């Protein structure tokens, strides 16, 4: 019975922790970090204020964990998209194959009408009003993804040196971030005046445009 009680206690603790994360994510997204009140947050999550300290060690670390639970999933998804393409045997891998897989893995989760879409808005807030430790996004998300994509690009484009490969990646990710943010803006206005390409068309344009630019960076047009 003690074993079963422990399991029940652990499950209850996980449920409280998950409720805090869910509510915190929405409130941080809607109000921002500073305007989110811990008492309001815990009341909505159905727990007491002490639960935040118990499960996370404070508001700052709760904010960090809200980011981490999405960020690590997205990091792994993007790296997997690269690995899946590069591990294919028996056929020549085109640069477009790599870019298409990466672009899709980057954009698709962030334009769905779900918690990931809310997370993309939270990321936009963080860019203009940062509260995360500077090293977190860089070390846990950006560097692993850039390194994986850089290695793949150099393998497919041997004439692309490491510095140019990183610059190409920055250009590619800049397009993707703009696409996500523009989609959010265009959804709020008259789409006839500011048309936004549908998902597949947007992906194909970015792939074609970026592949041409990367080949140009090697000094080759084809």
Order of helices and strands: HHHHHHHHH
| Tally of helical segments | 9
- Mind describing the biggest β-sheet? none
Radius of gyration: 21 Å
Overall form: elongated
Q: Could you give me the name of the CATH homologous superfamily of the largest domain?
A: Tetracycline Repressor, domain 2
CATH-defined topology of the largest domain: Tetracycline Repressor, domain 2
Any idea how many domains? 2
Unreliable spans:
none
**CATH arch. level architecture of the largest domain:** Orthogonal Bundle
Estimate the mean pLDDT confidence.
86
State the helical fraction: over 70%
CATH class of the largest domain: Mainly Alpha
Instruction: Provide the structure class.
Output: mainly alpha
Strand portion: under 5%
* DSSP strand count: 0
Distance between the termini: 70 Å
Give a nutshell description of this structure:
By secondary structure, the protein is mainly alpha-helical. The chain has helices spanning 2-31, 38-45, 50-56, 59-86, 95-111, 115-128, 134-156, 162-186, 199-217. The chain contains nine helices and no strands.
Kindly describe this structure.
This protein has 222 residues and is an all-alpha fold. The chain has 2 domains: 1-57, Homeodomain-like (Arc Repressor Mutant, subunit A, Orthogonal Bundle); 63-217, Tetracycline Repressor, domain 2, CATH 1.10.357. Helices cover 77% and strands 0% of the residues. It starts with a helix and ends in a 5-residue tail after the last helix.
């Amino acid at each position: 019975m003690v074993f079963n009680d422990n399991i029940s206690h652990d499950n209850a603790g996980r449920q409280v922790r998950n409720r805090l994360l869910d509510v915190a994510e929405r409130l941080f997204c809607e109000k921002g970090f500073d305007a989110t009140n811990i008492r309001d947050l815990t009341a909505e999550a159905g727990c007491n204020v002490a639960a935040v300290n118990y499960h996370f060690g404070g508001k700052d670390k709760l904010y960090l964990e809200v980011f981490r639970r999405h960020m690590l999933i997205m990091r792994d998804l993007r790296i997997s998209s690269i690995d899946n393409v590069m591990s294919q045997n028996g056929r020549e891998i085109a640069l477009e194959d790599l870019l298409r897989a990466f672009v899709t893995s980057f954009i698709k989760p962030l334009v769905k009408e779900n918690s990931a879409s809310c997370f993309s808005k939270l990321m936009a807030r963080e860019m203009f009003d940062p509260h995360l430790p500077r090293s977190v996004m860089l070390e846990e998300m950006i560097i692993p993804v850039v390194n994986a994509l850089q290695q793949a690009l150099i393998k497919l484009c041997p004439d692309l040196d490491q510095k140019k490969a990183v610059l190409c990646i920055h250009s590619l990710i800049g397009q993707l971030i703009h696409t996500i943010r523009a989609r959010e803006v265009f959804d709020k206005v008259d789409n006839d005046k500011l048309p936004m390409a549908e998902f597949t068309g947007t992906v194909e344009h970015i792939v074609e445009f970026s592949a041409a630019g990367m080949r140009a960076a090697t000094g080759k047009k084809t």
